[in-house]
Amino acid sequence: MHAFNFLSNAVGGALMNVGVSGIVGQVMGVGVALAFHPALILLGVVVGGMSIAMIREINQQYEEPRHLYLVVDNTRRF
User: Fold this and answer.
1) What is d(CA 40, CA 59) in angstroms, rounded to the nearest whole number?
2) Which of 18-26's residues contact partners 24+ apart within 8 Å by CB, and which partners?
3) CA dist., res. 1 & res. 52, Å (int)
4) Looking at the chain, which terminus has fewer C-beta neighbours within 10 angstroms, N or C?
5) TM segments (predicted)?
């Protein structure tokens, strides 16, 4: 389970980084080449993955457990 969490955080961080860096690169006029800079990709995986992990942890803390109760009423007489 930890490996899946790590991979989902790393992939999510990389995708966030490519998106943000691509937009910033377009605004700066250098195109999407900024999105594929190796240092920025590594930084995006670390920072983006960390932010996704924090968001997932916060969501788990505030999620209320759902319980299903089975009530058997044997008080009725025939």
Assistant:
1) 28
2) 18/44, 20/44
3) 16
4) C
5) 7-28, 34-55
- pLDDT by residue (tens digit) across 36-45? 778 877 877 7
| Residue 27: CB atoms within 10 Å | 9
3-15 per-residue burial string, b: 16 or more CB within 10 A, e: under 16: eeeeeebbebbbe
The whole-angstrom separation of Cα 67 and Cα 63 is: 12
What is each CA distance from 12 to 26, 29, 49, in whole angstroms?
21, 26, 6
Q: Vertex 54, ends 51 and 59: CA angle to 5°?
A: 125
Collapse the DSSP code of 9 into the 3-class scheme (helix H, G, I; strand E, B; otherwise coil) and give the result.
helix
